[in-house]
Amino acid sequence: MLRQRLTLGPILIAIVVLGLWADEWLATQPVPGWASSFLSGSTLPGGLIVLPIMLLLCTTASRELSRILRRKGVDSTLPIMASGAALGLLTVASAAWMHQLVTPITAVALAGSCGTAVMITALLHASRRKKLEGTLAAAGGALLSYVYLGLMAGFALLLRSEHSAWVLLWVLMVTKSCDIGAYFTGKSIGKHKLIPWLSPGKTWEGLIGGVVVSSIVGAAGMYWLHSAGKSDHALWLALFAGALFGIVGQAGDLVASMFKRDAAVKDAGGSLPGFGGVLDVLDSPLLVMPVAFWWLRIWGA
Length: 301
Description:
2 domains
């Protein structure tokens, strides 16, 4: 498994960096005349490359989440789950980019309306069996995809709409560095189980080691952003941000573990050898993105 991670990991990092570089470049291009009526600003908004990447990842993760739900006997179908995730992302994208059309009230109404549509669609699909059993779980599963894989993932777009693509990369690297630090520290000196009934492999030593690594990466990454003129966030705050994102990321991993353990599966999927499925990679960033967005909103970047 470690060899597979060491092989695939750098490839995934390269793809992310290339995608964010393209997104950063595209955001310097002028808004076409035909789009000026609904896109604010003189240049294209940040996130136009991030959105299709997120759509691909989150709809793929919805397939894995649907599989987990079906293992629990929930009437979950891929079209509804994928549509829920996509609708959540597109709702956030419209709020982030189309300021001239989407007011704050409209954004809230749009999010609520899309969530309602997802729930009703799931209920209609479940009712085709002419049985009441399982309808609540079916609606809940569809809404889980909408919120968890749609709205929560959409915070990456909100963050990108307000900051450089390299700030988004910083958040991702800090989050994943905690995963890496926790893995190697836990393997080396881990003795005291963190939550044995939920994730037997996690230890307190691993968590502490991961948080130390994420704090260092947070400060080092912010120093680079300072040097590149991409952020003026205080370095001492970046240390705390690194620790916070690391802890929240580990909580995100545990949330996904709750889903998987309940369905008696080890990994969400097998599309990424050494890592599991797409959901196994996204679990920590999904919870971190909302926290990172508000952290940067409050403390600045």
